[in-house]
Amino acid sequence: MSTFVTQKRYFHPTVTKDYIRRVLRDNFQCEEFTLAGEKGKALRGLANSSCYAILIKMIEGHPHMLCTIRSSSVTLSKGWVVPAGGMIDDGETEIEAAKREAYEEIGLPMEDFDIIGGAKPLPMIFSTNKQTHFYLSWSIFGLVPDNFTPVINEEVEDYFYIPLYEFVDQLDSSHSITEVDYFYDQKVFYHNFKWTHKNKLYKISGAVGHIGLISAIAIYQRKKYVKFGPVIEVSRHNLKHVNDWFCYTTVNFLKKHMSPSKL
Asked: What is the CATH topology of the domain spanning 12-258?
């Protein structure tokens, strides 16, 4: 059982699957940036491509995001809390890769991955042994059946479901912010969240915390602005702005500083 007690609780109305589909598609779906679209194809030539399967399960009328805890057998993210996901193979679309990774890592049958849509890609940067690994990661949102129980493989140590309302609740109580230099000349605020699973406290941060937060802002229609950078404030009224900013800043950096031989 996973729990996390924030300093104060808020009432959140229950929502339906149809509502979640509509809200997430309205805010995040972008056909031109899929790997089948022209801009998506161009990005694939600039950097390695990976995907996240953002899987949502309805529990007592509230959407919960499925998070995996990476095992010691993986190379880059031991012990991290991330959605199911991995590299996009040659010839695959981001949706095909997300379905494959979800099946391999948590046993979700491909026909049970109820696709909602995909967001613009986010940068993923890992450092291992003084070497930096750079990826562009496509997030594919989907619903899972109410009776789905993950069957994990060797890449996953464990898993839990976190209610999406925790991401907006913790904004006003117990979350923290990390300010990082984003591609040398840009600063960005990463929002860090906590969740206790089997009496162990886990940190949800980076791109995963970002995805959880913007999803929760959309679903629960948060009016209060949230800072994602010194000059970037986002609420339900301009949610697409932060996704545009991340994506276009990433693209401009890649075109200016990187080449395929360096990646």
From this structure: Nucleoside Triphosphate Pyrophosphohydrolase (3.90.79)
